[in-house]
Amino acid sequence: AQSVTQPDIHITVSEGASLELRCNYSYGATPYLFWYVQSPGQGLQLLLKYFSGDTLVQGIKGFEAEFKRSQSSFNLRKPSVHWSDAAEYFCAVVGGATNKLIFGTGTLLAVQP
Amino acid sequence: NAGVTQTPKFRILKIGQSMTLQCAQDMNHNYMYWYRQDPGMGLKLIYYSVGAGITDKGEVPNGYNVSRSTTEDFPLRLELAAPSQTSVYFCASSPGQAYGYTFGSGTRLTVV
User: Fold this and answer.
1) Chain A contacts of B56, Cβ < 8 Å?
2) Which end of chain B is more exposed for a tag (fewer CB within 10 A), N or C?
């Protein structure tokens, strides 16, 4: 069965520092992978997605993610974090005809001034 | 475009009451989903629909029901509310696998 693991529950970084959020997935075929961001009290917004082609994908708000099949990973990165990036980040995988998204448990990002 | 609209935004229910959470999308998406979000647990799929007239159970369907009579609407019914149903509920829609989901802004439900 498909699954997603986000090993970091909570991460704190300083403003201007680089960021990497980890995501590992389990899926038999080529996965469709997504990163979503959720600000407090809000719904989820799509940051970026991967489904084929170039393994380094660019998203909104300066985020990027790299798909590594050998490591079953899809880590999210940002070179320089802004205070407005403080939010919860969810990695997700979809597969099958029903298009169901399986979410990780999320990583809560705090940004220090 | 309004996207995905959920109503109400907040609701307090007493144990044993029933209610319907409304979800409507104006993007003509075939796929629609209901998730619940609990702290530290991520999002769990309650029910989903791949088109009008077709629904199926997700990971945590007990205590809930859905219907999909039109492409636009996908209401979630809670019968005999229980404290365990206190959660934030999100509706989402999608045109297909490569596109991801568009989420509504959520309904925060408290059962007391």
Assistant:
1) 98
2) N
Secondary-structure percent of chain A, ordered helix, strand, coil, rounded to 5: 10, 55, 40
Check residue B112 and give its pLDDT. Answer: 96
* CB contact (8 A) between residue B42 and residue A42: no
The list of chain B residues with pLDDT below 70 reads 1
Answer whether A98 touches B (CB < 8 Å).
yes
The partner residues of A57 in beta bridges, in order of sequence, read A65
Q: Is B54 on the interface with A (CB under 8 A)?
A: no
CA distance A97 to B35: 18
What is the pLDDT, as a whole number, of residue A95?
A: 66
CB distance from A97 to chain B under 8 Å?
yes
Instruction: Name the nearest CA neighbour of B84 among B38, B43, B19.
Output: B38
Rounded to 5 degrees, what angle do the CA atoms B86, B87, B91 make? 135
